[in-house]
Amino acid sequence: QKEVEQNSGPLSVPEGAIASLNCTYSDRGSQSFFWYRQYSGKSPELIMSIYSNGDKEDGRFTAQLNKASQYVSLLIRDSQPSDSATYLCAVNRGSNDYKLSFGAGTTVTVRA
Amino acid sequence: SAVISQKPSRDICQRGTSLTIQCQVDSQVTMMFWYRQQPGQSLTLIATANQGSEATYESGFVIDKFPISRPNLTFSTLTVSNMSPEDSSIYLCSVKESYEQYFGPGTRLTVT
After folding, report:
1. Chain A residues with beta carbon closer than 8 angstroms to that of B45
2. What is the largest CA-CA distance in chain B?
3. What angle do CA B32, B36, B37 make, to 5 degrees?
Protein backbone atom coordinates (compact mmCIF):
# COMPACT_ATOMS: atom_id res chain seq x y z
CA GLN A 1 0.00 0.00 0.00
CA LYS A 2 1.37 3.39 -0.95
CA GLU A 3 1.83 5.86 1.88
CA VAL A 4 -0.24 8.54 0.16
CA GLU A 5 -2.75 7.85 -2.59
CA GLN A 6 -4.68 10.35 -4.66
CA ASN A 7 -7.49 9.93 -7.16
CA SER A 8 -5.63 9.38 -10.36
CA GLY A 9 -7.31 11.90 -12.63
CA PRO A 10 -6.99 13.71 -14.83
CA LEU A 11 -9.95 15.73 -13.65
CA SER A 12 -11.70 18.00 -16.10
CA VAL A 13 -14.27 20.48 -14.80
CA PRO A 14 -16.10 23.38 -16.44
CA GLU A 15 -15.30 26.90 -15.37
CA GLY A 16 -17.30 27.87 -12.31
CA ALA A 17 -17.79 24.29 -11.10
CA ILE A 18 -16.39 22.62 -7.99
CA ALA A 19 -13.30 20.46 -8.36
CA SER A 20 -13.00 17.74 -5.74
CA LEU A 21 -9.67 16.07 -5.02
CA ASN A 22 -9.21 13.16 -2.66
CA CYS A 23 -6.27 11.72 -0.79
CA THR A 24 -5.86 8.79 1.59
CA TYR A 25 -2.87 8.00 3.74
CA SER A 26 -1.65 4.89 5.50
CA ASP A 27 0.11 6.11 8.67
CA ARG A 28 -2.35 6.68 11.51
CA GLY A 29 0.30 8.72 13.33
CA SER A 30 0.37 11.42 10.66
CA GLN A 31 -0.60 14.81 12.03
CA SER A 32 0.11 17.34 9.28
CA PHE A 33 -1.53 17.43 5.88
CA PHE A 34 -0.81 19.68 2.95
CA TRP A 35 -1.99 20.47 -0.54
CA TYR A 36 0.46 21.81 -3.07
CA ARG A 37 -0.32 23.19 -6.50
CA GLN A 38 2.21 22.64 -9.26
CA TYR A 39 1.91 24.36 -12.59
CA SER A 40 3.64 22.70 -15.52
CA GLY A 41 7.35 23.45 -15.44
CA LYS A 42 7.15 25.07 -11.99
CA SER A 43 7.89 23.97 -8.46
CA PRO A 44 5.17 23.01 -5.96
CA GLU A 45 3.43 25.87 -4.18
CA LEU A 46 1.81 25.32 -0.79
CA ILE A 47 -1.86 26.30 -0.95
CA MET A 48 -3.40 24.63 2.11
CA SER A 49 -2.33 23.04 5.36
CA ILE A 50 -4.64 21.30 7.80
CA TYR A 51 -3.93 19.69 11.14
CA SER A 52 -7.31 19.09 12.83
CA ASN A 53 -10.37 17.13 11.83
CA GLY A 54 -12.97 19.14 9.97
CA ASP A 55 -12.92 21.80 7.32
CA LYS A 56 -10.54 24.66 6.70
CA GLU A 57 -11.43 27.33 4.20
CA ASP A 58 -9.13 29.79 2.44
CA GLY A 59 -10.74 31.78 -0.32
CA ARG A 60 -12.05 29.38 -2.95
CA PHE A 61 -10.18 26.44 -1.40
CA THR A 62 -11.54 24.15 1.33
CA ALA A 63 -9.50 21.36 2.85
CA GLN A 64 -11.29 18.60 4.73
CA LEU A 65 -9.62 16.17 7.11
CA ASN A 66 -10.97 12.97 8.64
CA LYS A 67 -8.26 11.24 10.64
CA ALA A 68 -10.46 8.30 11.59
CA SER A 69 -10.93 7.50 7.90
CA GLN A 70 -7.35 8.60 7.06
CA TYR A 71 -8.75 10.86 4.40
CA VAL A 72 -8.05 14.40 3.32
CA SER A 73 -9.66 16.27 0.48
CA LEU A 74 -9.46 19.59 -1.32
CA LEU A 75 -12.40 21.39 -2.85
CA ILE A 76 -11.88 24.18 -5.34
CA ARG A 77 -15.01 26.27 -5.68
CA ASP A 78 -15.82 28.47 -8.68
CA SER A 79 -12.98 26.83 -10.61
CA GLN A 80 -11.05 29.12 -12.92
CA PRO A 81 -8.80 28.28 -15.88
CA SER A 82 -5.90 29.49 -13.73
CA ASP A 83 -6.61 26.57 -11.38
CA SER A 84 -5.50 24.14 -14.10
CA ALA A 85 -2.49 22.43 -12.52
CA THR A 86 -1.38 19.27 -10.76
CA TYR A 87 -2.37 19.11 -7.10
CA LEU A 88 -0.15 17.16 -4.76
CA CYS A 89 -1.26 15.80 -1.41
CA ALA A 90 1.51 15.59 1.19
CA VAL A 91 1.41 14.00 4.62
CA ASN A 92 3.98 13.93 7.37
CA ARG A 93 5.31 10.45 7.93
CA GLY A 94 4.13 9.88 11.42
CA SER A 95 3.90 11.43 14.81
CA ASN A 96 6.85 13.74 15.43
CA ASP A 97 8.26 13.12 11.94
CA TYR A 98 8.66 16.29 9.91
CA LYS A 99 9.43 14.52 6.65
CA LEU A 100 6.72 14.50 4.00
CA SER A 101 5.40 11.78 1.75
CA PHE A 102 3.74 12.91 -1.46
CA GLY A 103 0.96 11.43 -3.49
CA ALA A 104 1.31 11.01 -7.22
CA GLY A 105 -0.78 14.10 -7.87
CA THR A 106 -4.07 14.81 -9.61
CA THR A 107 -4.05 16.92 -12.75
CA VAL A 108 -6.96 19.32 -12.97
CA THR A 109 -8.06 21.01 -16.18
CA VAL A 110 -10.65 23.75 -15.98
CA ARG A 111 -12.52 24.17 -19.27
CA ALA A 112 -13.46 27.72 -20.18
CA SER B 1 7.58 32.55 3.82
CA ALA B 2 11.30 32.41 3.09
CA VAL B 3 12.52 33.26 -0.37
CA ILE B 4 14.46 30.34 -1.85
CA SER B 5 16.70 30.47 -4.89
CA GLN B 6 18.50 27.69 -6.74
CA LYS B 7 21.37 27.69 -9.18
CA PRO B 8 21.53 26.65 -11.92
CA SER B 9 17.92 26.71 -13.04
CA ARG B 10 18.67 24.11 -15.68
CA ASP B 11 21.65 22.31 -17.15
CA ILE B 12 22.49 19.71 -19.75
CA CYS B 13 25.36 17.45 -18.72
CA GLN B 14 27.23 14.54 -20.18
CA ARG B 15 27.09 11.15 -18.56
CA GLY B 16 29.91 10.47 -16.13
CA THR B 17 30.24 14.08 -15.02
CA SER B 18 29.02 15.77 -11.82
CA LEU B 19 26.85 18.79 -11.19
CA THR B 20 26.55 20.82 -8.00
CA ILE B 21 23.25 22.55 -7.32
CA GLN B 22 23.09 25.45 -4.92
CA CYS B 23 20.18 26.43 -2.69
CA GLN B 24 20.13 29.82 -0.98
CA VAL B 25 17.51 31.02 1.52
CA ASP B 26 16.99 34.64 2.53
CA SER B 27 16.60 33.78 6.22
CA GLN B 28 18.06 31.26 8.62
CA VAL B 29 16.24 27.95 8.62
CA THR B 30 16.91 24.89 10.69
CA MET B 31 15.76 22.26 8.27
CA MET B 32 16.49 22.01 4.57
CA PHE B 33 15.65 19.12 2.29
CA TRP B 34 16.52 17.93 -1.18
CA TYR B 35 13.94 16.25 -3.41
CA ARG B 36 13.94 14.70 -6.84
CA GLN B 37 11.04 14.82 -9.28
CA GLN B 38 11.51 12.49 -12.20
CA PRO B 39 9.58 13.20 -15.42
CA GLY B 40 5.86 12.78 -14.88
CA GLN B 41 6.36 11.65 -11.29
CA SER B 42 5.77 13.03 -7.84
CA LEU B 43 8.39 14.19 -5.38
CA THR B 44 10.84 11.83 -3.70
CA LEU B 45 12.89 12.94 -0.71
CA ILE B 46 16.61 12.43 -1.24
CA ALA B 47 17.97 13.66 2.07
CA THR B 48 17.73 16.10 4.93
CA ALA B 49 20.59 18.59 4.92
CA ASN B 50 21.80 19.05 8.49
CA GLN B 51 23.79 22.12 9.43
CA GLY B 52 27.19 21.18 10.78
CA SER B 53 26.79 17.45 10.32
CA GLU B 54 26.32 14.84 7.63
CA ALA B 55 23.11 14.74 5.68
CA THR B 56 20.52 12.09 6.48
CA TYR B 57 19.73 10.06 3.39
CA GLU B 58 16.52 8.26 2.51
CA SER B 59 16.41 4.64 1.46
CA GLY B 60 17.77 4.27 -2.04
CA PHE B 61 20.00 7.34 -1.94
CA VAL B 62 23.65 7.29 -0.91
CA ILE B 63 26.21 9.92 -0.04
CA ASP B 64 28.65 8.84 -2.74
CA LYS B 65 26.07 9.56 -5.43
CA PHE B 66 24.43 12.62 -3.85
CA PRO B 67 26.89 14.39 -1.54
CA ILE B 68 25.30 17.28 0.32
CA SER B 69 26.83 20.20 2.14
CA ARG B 70 25.17 22.56 4.62
CA PRO B 71 27.80 25.02 5.79
CA ASN B 72 25.36 27.43 7.44
CA LEU B 73 21.66 28.02 8.10
CA THR B 74 20.98 29.75 4.78
CA PHE B 75 22.81 27.63 2.20
CA SER B 76 23.11 24.06 0.97
CA THR B 77 24.47 22.24 -2.05
CA LEU B 78 23.55 18.94 -3.65
CA THR B 79 25.98 17.26 -6.01
CA VAL B 80 24.78 14.68 -8.49
CA SER B 81 27.85 12.53 -9.14
CA ASN B 82 28.86 10.29 -12.02
CA MET B 83 25.64 11.10 -13.80
CA SER B 84 23.68 8.78 -16.06
CA PRO B 85 20.58 9.51 -18.15
CA GLU B 86 18.47 8.08 -15.29
CA ASP B 87 19.50 11.09 -13.22
CA SER B 88 17.59 13.39 -15.56
CA SER B 89 15.11 15.01 -13.19
CA ILE B 90 14.11 18.19 -11.48
CA TYR B 91 15.97 18.66 -8.22
CA LEU B 92 14.29 20.81 -5.59
CA CYS B 93 15.39 22.14 -2.27
CA SER B 94 12.83 22.93 0.38
CA VAL B 95 12.86 24.54 3.79
CA LYS B 96 10.72 23.89 6.82
CA GLU B 97 9.05 26.84 8.53
CA SER B 98 6.95 25.92 11.51
CA TYR B 99 5.07 22.84 10.30
CA GLU B 100 5.15 23.76 6.62
CA GLN B 101 7.62 23.18 3.81
CA TYR B 102 8.30 25.58 0.96
CA PHE B 103 10.10 24.76 -2.24
CA GLY B 104 12.69 26.49 -4.31
CA PRO B 105 12.19 26.95 -8.06
CA GLY B 106 14.04 23.74 -8.91
CA THR B 107 16.93 22.74 -11.14
CA ARG B 108 16.05 20.89 -14.32
CA LEU B 109 18.85 18.47 -15.13
CA THR B 110 19.18 16.61 -18.42
CA VAL B 111 21.92 14.00 -18.77
CA THR B 112 22.92 12.99 -22.28
Report:
1. 99-100
2. 40
3. 130
Per-block mean pLDDT, blocks of 10 residues, chain B (112 long): 95 98 96 94 93 90 97 96 97 94 97 98
Q: Do B45 and A99 touch (CB under 8 A)?
A: yes
Q: Which residues pair with B32 in a beta bridge?
A: B49, B95
A42-60: per-residue pLDDT in tens?
999 999 999 999 999 999 9
Percent of chain A topping pLDDT 90: 88
Q: Determine contact, residues B21/B80, Cβ cutoff 8 Å.
A: yes
| Closest CA in chain B for residue A44 | B103
- B45/A98 Cβ within 8 A: no
* Chain A neighbors of B1, CB-CB under 8 A: 46
Candidates A42, A78, A36, A87; CA nearest to A59 is: A78
Q: By CA distance, what is A42's nearest residue in B? A: B105
Indicate yes or no: CB of A88 within 8 angstroms of CB of B43: yes
